[in-house]
Specification:
The complex is a heterodimer of chains A (560) and B (169). With 560 residues, chain A is α+β, with helices and mostly antiparallel strands. Chain A has helices spanning 33-54, 59-94, 132-137, 161-176, 179-186, 192-196, 200-213, 227-232, 248-256, 259-278, 282-305, 379-389, 398-407, 471-476, 499-518, 524-538, and strands at 27-28, 96-99, 103-108, 114-119, 123-130, 139-146, 154-160, 241-245, 309-313, 316-321, 326-331, 336-343, 352-359, 372-378, 417-418, 435-438, 442-447, 452-458, 464-469, 478-484, 493-498. The two termini of chain A are 40 Å apart. Chain B is an alpha+beta fold and 169 residues long. Chain B is elongated, with a radius of gyration of 21 Å. Classes of the chains: A alpha+beta (560), B alpha+beta (169). The A-B interface holds A 121-122, 124, 147, 335, 337, 360, 394-396, 415, 417, 437-440, 460-471, 474, 479, 482, 484-487, 491, 499-508, 510, 512-514, 517, 559-560 and B 1-2, 4-5, 8-10, 12-14, 16, 90-91, 99-107, 109-110, 134-141, 167-169.
Chain lengths: 560, 169
C-alpha cells in the first residue's frame, strides 16, 4: 500500500466515458497520512509504554527483567502498535474527498463523521502545505480556504505532491469557471456534460455506497490514473512568472534590524557587565526565558519567510516560502481584501517595506504565516507587489501617489487630504501623516510616523464603513474614519480627519463602493499580468492595460 | 482621481443630509435601567448594609457606587434617545453615542446574516435586538430596543434587500 491513486466511485464505470455516471469521484488520501499527522502521538505512546515497562525498576535489574519479561514488553509494544495501526487504517479508510464543478467535498472522522462541502465560487485561497515530515515522504496537504470563520478551511491531505498540485490546478480552474473552456479546447465534446451536472446533494448517496463497496486494497497505482480525471479534464498547471523573491541575506539583515534584537542585545550587555561586576552567574539563567522567546520569534519568522518567492499565474498570485515547513499559497484574483505597506523606523535606512494582505479565508490566525505578501523588500519591489494585487490604481501617476502615501506628509502633499492643524494636540507625532486619498479604484489610507503605514482598500472590497468621534475630537472638530475589512492583520482606518472631510468621505465612499461592486470587471486579471511584467522590466508601473494587448488567455473571475 | 464634492457638505459628520432617523423604543431605557439597578444597585445595598452594621468606612465604596448609579441613570435616557437607524436605498445607517459618537454604514449587499435576539427581560418589555453581520468582524451594527414587529419587519426587509443586492466578498 504505497500509494493512493484515485479510487473509482463505481467499479463498473467505463473509463473515458463521455458521460460519467457519478459526477463526483471519491478519492482517498495517501495512506501515510495518519502517521504524518499523528507522529507525535505515536512517539508519545511508545514512550509511555517504554516508561511504564521500566518504571520503578532499578537500572541494574533491567537486564535480568528483560530476560524474564521481554515478552510482556514485546506484547505491550505489539498491542499499542496494532491499536495505532488499526486506528490509522480506519481513519485513512474513512477519509475521502471529491471535487465537482461546484464544490469540493471532504468526508472524515470515525465516530463523529464529518462531511464538508466547500463551494468553489466562494474559494478564497488554496494553500499547498508541506510540513517537514511530509516533505520527507514527498507528500503535501491541500487547504482550501473559504470565508467561513475559524476552522472553516477544507484540508485535503496528505497527497503526493504531484497529485496535490494537479488537484490545485483543477480546483482553481473550476473555481474560475474555465473548466469547460480550457478542457474543451483540447477534447471538444467530452467535458461538456460534466459542467451542467448537479452538485453535491444528488451525488453524495451513491458515492457513499461506493466507498462501502470498495475493497480494502483497491488502490489504483498512481501511474495509471483515471484517464477521465487526469487526461481530458484536468487542465495543465497554469504557467507562472516569478515576480520577486527575497534573498536569505536580506531576510537576515531585516531581522537583525528589528528593535527586539537590539533590546535583547542591550539587556545581554547590561547583564554581562552585571555578572562581571558581581560574579553572580545566577542572573544569566533569569535571562533564559526572554532569550528563548526572542529566539523562537526570530527563528519562526526566518523559517517561515525563508526563500520567499512571489509569482503571477492566471490562477492568481502564488507565494512560496518556508525553510522546514514549506507552503505554496495561491490567492485567486480579486480575493485580496486590503493591502498594507509598513516600514518601521529600523528599516528606513534601507527603504525596506513589509506588505501584508487581508484574505478572507486566512483570518486572524494566519496573520503571521499566510497573510504576508512581501516579508521585506525595497520600495520598488513593494510597488511591484502592490501592482500585483491592484494592477490599476485608477489614477494617472500611481507611482507618485503611492510614494506620497509611503513617505509624504502634509507639508509635501499633492493629493492626500490630511488632518487639520488643530488636530496636532490630539496626535502631535503623526497628525501630518494621517491622511487619505480616493482614486477611481481604491481608497488609500496613510498613517504612522515612526512606523509608516499605507493601507489600500479596493472600493469593491469595502464591507462597511464607520465614523467615530470622541469628546476631545469633537472639541477640535475632527473625526476618525474606519473601513471594515474581513478579519486579518489590517484594520484600515485614518484618525483625526477634519469632520466635514470625514462626513463627505463616508457618504461618498458608500456610493463608490456600491458602484465599484456593480461594475467589477472580472477580465482584468490577465491584463494585470502584463502590466506587472512591464512594471518589473521597466521598474515603472504600467497603468494602461491597452499597451499590452497580447496578455494571454483571459480568465473570468468568479464571484468572490 | 475623484475629488470630494464640496457641495455635499452635510450639517455634521453624524447627520448626513436627507436622512431621517428612526428612533428605538423608549422601553429600552427601562431595560437598561433594570440592568443598571442590578449591577450597581445590588452592590450598593450590600455596601450600605455592611456600612451600617460593621464599619462606616464602607460608606466610601457605597458613595462611589451611588454616584455611578446616579450618573448612569441620568445618562441612559439620553443615550437611548441618541440611538438611531435609517434605511437608505442601498445601505443602512446606524448611529449611537453622545460623548463617543459612532456612525456605521452597512451596505445591504454586504450583509451575510441578520440576528434577531430578545432575552427574558427584553421579551417582558416587548423589545428585541437586531444585529447585522458582514464578512468583517469589526462591523458593529447593532440596533437594540426595537419593537418585535419592527424588528421582524426590519429583518425581512434587510434580508430581501440584501438578496437583491447580493455581492460576494
Amino acid at each position: 500500500m504505497s500509494d493512493s491513486g484515485p479510487v473509482p466511485s463505481s467499479a463498473s464505470r467505463p473509463a473515458q466515458s463521455p458521460e460519467p455516471p457519478a459526477q463526483q469521484q471519491w478519492r482517498r488520501v495517501h495512506p501515510v497520512t495518519p502517521f504524518v499527522r499523528g507522529w507525535a502521538v505515536i512517539v508519545a505512546l511508545l514512550f509511555v509504554v517504554a516508561q511504564q515497562s521500566f518504571d520503578g525498576v532499578p537500572y541494574g535489574e533491567i537486564v535480568d527483567d528483560l530476560a524474564r519479561l521481554w515478552w510482556v514488553f514485546a506484547l505491550g509494544v505489539l498491542v499499542v502498535l496494532s491499536i495505532v495501526f488499526g486506528y490509522a487504517a480506519l481513519a485513512w479508510r474513512m477519509t475521502s474527498y471529491a471535487v465537482d464543478d461546484d464544490a469540493a467535498h471532504l468526508r472524515k472522522g470515525i465516530l463523529f463523521r464529518q462531511q464538508r462541502h466547500a463551494r468553489l465560487d466562494r474559494l478564497q485561497a488554496v494553500d499547498v502545505r508541506q510540513p517537514l515530515l511530509a516533505r520527507i515522504f514527498g507528500l503535501a496537504e491541500l487547504t482550501l480556504e473559504v470565508a467561513g470563520g475559524t476552522d472553516s478551511a477544507v484540508a485535503i491531505g496528505f497527497l503526493r505532491l504531484d497529485d496535490a498540485t494537479e488537484l490545485r490546478a483543477d480546483l482553481l480552474a473550476r473555481a474560475a469557471g474555465v473548466k469547460a473552456r480550457r478542457a474543451g479546447a483540447g477534447t471538444a465534446g467530452t467535458t461538456a456534460p460534466a459542467v451542467a451536472t448537479d452538485d453535491a446533494g444528488t451525488a453524495t448517496a451513491p458515492a457513499a455506497d461506493a466507498e462501502a463497496e470498495a475493497p480494502r486494497g483497491s488502490v489504483v497505482a498512481a501511474d495509471a490514473p483515471d484517464p477521465a480525471m487526469l487526461g481530458a479534464t484536468v487542465p495543465a498547471e497554469a504557467p507562472e512568472n516569478q515576480v520577486y523573491e527575497v534573498p536569505p541575506g536580506r531576510l537576515v539583515a531585516s531581522l537583525v534590524r528589528l528593535p527586539v534584537v537590539w533590546i535583547i542585545l542591550a539587556v545581554l550587555i547590561a547583564v554581562g557587565v552585571g555578572v562581571a561586576a558581581t560574579r553572580n552567574f545566577g542572573i544569566l539563567f533569569s535571562l533564559l526565558p526572554a532569550l528563548l522567546g526572542v529566539g523562537t520569534f526570530l527563528f519562526n519568522r526566518f523559517a517561515g519567510e525563508f526563500g520567499f518567492r512571489a509569482a503571477v499565474s492566471p490562477d492568481g498570485i502564488r507565494l512560496r516560502h518556508g525553510l522546514l515547513e514549506t507552503r505554496a499559497q495561491t490567492i485567486p484574483p480579486g480575493r485580496v481584501q486590503a493591502i498594507e505597506l509598513t516600514q518601521g523606523i529600523w528599516w528606513r535606512g534601507k527603504d525596506w517595506w513589509r506588505i501584508k494582505v487581508n484574505v478572507a479565508g486566512y483570518g486572524v490566525e494566519g496573520t503571521d504565516t499566510q497573510s504576508v505578501l512581501l516579508p521585506v523588500g525595497p520600495r520598488q519591489e513593494a510597488l511591484t507587489a502592490l501592482w500585483l494585487v491592484l494592477p490599476d490604481l485608477g489614477t494617472q501617476d500611481p507611482a507618485a501617489l503611492v510614494d506620497e502615501g509611503l513617505t509624504g506628509d502634509a507639508r509635501t502633499d499633492v493629493s492626500f487630504t490630511t488632518s487639520p492643524r488643530r488636530a496636532r494636540i490630539l496626535d502631535p507625532l503623526t497628525w501630518r501623516r494621517n491622511g487619505f486619498v480616493v482614486t477611481d479604484r481604491a481608497l488609500l489610507l496613510r498613517g504612522g510616523r515612526l512606523t509608516r503605514r499605507l493601507a489600500v482598500v479596493p472600493h469593491e472590497r469595502t464591507q462597511s464603513l464607520g465614523l467615530g468621534q470622541g469628546p476631545w475630537q469633537r472639541r477640535r472638530g475632527v473625526a476618525s474614519f474606519t473601513v471594515h475589512s474581513t478579519p486579518g492583520p489590517i484594520s484600515p482606518a485614518v484618525h483625526h480627519l477634519d469632520a466635514p472631510d470625514a462626513a463627505r468621505l463616508i457618504a461618498e465612499q458608500a456610493v463608490r463602493a456600491r458602484t465599484a461592486r456593480a461594475q467589477q470587471t472580472p477580465e482584468r486579471w490577465m491584463e494585470t499580468v502584463a502590466a506587472v511584467a512591464a512594471a518589473q522590466s521597466d521598474a515603472q508601473p504600467d497603468t494602461e492595460p491597452d499597451t499590452q494587448p497580447d496578455a494571454g488567455p483571459t480568465r473570468p473571475e468568479g464571484d468572490a | 482621481m475623484t475629488s470630494i464634492d464640496p457641495a455635499a457638505q452635510p450639517a455634521g459628520p453624524f447627520d448626513p443630509p436627507g436622512v431621517t432617523w428612526d428612533r428605538v423604543s423608549p422601553r429600552l431605557i427601562t431595560a437598561r435601567l433594570v440592568v443598571l439597578a442590578l449591577t450597581f444597585g445590588l452592590p450598593l445595598v450590600a455596601c450600605a448594609v455592611v456600612a451600617a452594621l460593621v464599619t462606616p468606612w464602607v460608606w466610601i465604596p457605597a458613595g462611589v457606587l451611588a454616584a455611578l448609579l446616579l450618573w448612569t441613570v441620568l445618562l441612559v435616557p439620553r443615550q437611548v434617545r441618541a440611538m438611531g437607524y435609517a434605511e437608505r436605498d442601498d445601505d443602512l445607517l446606524i448611529r449611537k453615542g453622545i460623548l463617543f459618537r459612532q456612525l456605521v454604514v452597512v451596505p445591504y449587499g454586504r450583509m451575510q446574516f441578520v440576528d434577531v435576539e430578545a432575552g427574558p427581560l427584553d421579551r417582558k418589555l416587548d423589545i428585541a435586538k437586531v444585529q447585522l453581520h458582514t464578512a468583517a468582524a469589526s462591523t458593529d451594527a447593532v440596533i437594540p430596543g426595537l419593537a418585535p414587529d419592527e424588528a421582524e419587519r426590519l429583518r425581512d426587509r434587510l434580508t430581501a434587500r440584501g438578496e437583491a443586492r447580493l455581492a460576494g466578498l
